[in-house]
């Protein structure tokens, strides 16, 4: 299995092919619907962003409450298509990757190819299992959003599958 690290760079991204299994280590950021709306609003109004988009990887995830003595609660992926309206804007501003589950809109696939990004999927229904790959978690922005706050996660060997690669290869077979 191929190992990759964040921040993602063009060499790593171009080496990935749809369907390939990878293990990711480094920093990723959780963000769901409302956090995306806030980030894109900040981009459009030239306000400071909660993290640097260049080379960043966003995980579409809203972890459950953290049990006592644990680093994070269950942290499985959420449906990516809910973030489709925001993804092209973020990719244009330097975002290099996204993690979630499910198909993406044609516009997102085109933006991934145009901006040389990548879309990963991970194992849905396995949120409790995925916690073992999270080595630290801290709230980074929008704490008022509760489970939809942006978290900075440090992960080690987080299991992913390349769903859409930088050349437009797509495990879902979309055109």
Task: Kindly describe this structure.
The structure is a single chain. The protein is of the alpha/beta class and 175 residues long. 21% of the residues lie in helices and 27% in strands. It has five helices and seven strands; from the N terminus they run βαβαβαβαβαββ. Helix 1 (10-14) links the parallel strand 1 (2-5) and strand 2 (21-30). The longest helix has 12 residues, at 33-44. The chain is globular, with a radius of gyration of 15 Å. The two termini are 27 Å apart. The model has no long low-confidence stretch (mean pLDDT 96).
Key features of this structure:
175 residues, alpha/beta, fumarase, 5-stranded mixed barrel, 27% strand
Relevant CATH superfamily: Fe-S hydro-lyase, tartrate dehydratase beta-type, catalytic domain
- Share of helical residues: 10-25%
CATH topology: fumarase
- The chain-level structural class is alpha/beta
Proportion in β-strands? 25-35%
The low-confidence parts are none
């Amino acid at each position: 299995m191929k190992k990759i690290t964040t921040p993602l760079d063009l060499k790593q991204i171009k080496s990935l092919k749809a369907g390939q299994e990878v293990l990711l280590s480094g920093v990723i950021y959780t963000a769901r619907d409302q956090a995306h709306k806030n980030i894109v609003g900040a981009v459009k109004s030239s306000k400071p962003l909660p993290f640097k988009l260049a080379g960043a990887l966003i995980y579409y995830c809203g972890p459950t409450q953290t049990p006592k003595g644990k680093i994070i609660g269950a942290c499985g992926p959420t449906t990516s298509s809910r973030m489709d309206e925001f993804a092209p804007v973020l990719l244009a501003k330097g975002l290099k990757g996204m993690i979630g589950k499910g198909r993406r809109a044609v516009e997102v696939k085109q933006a991934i190819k145009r901006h040389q990004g990548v879309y990963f999927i991970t194992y849905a229904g396995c949120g409790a299992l995925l916690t073992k790959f999270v080595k630290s978690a801290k709230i980074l922005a929008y704490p008022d959003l509760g489970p939809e706050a942006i978290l900075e996660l440090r992960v080690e060997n987080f299991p992913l599958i390349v769903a859409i690669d930088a050349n437009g290869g797509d495990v879902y077979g979309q055109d």
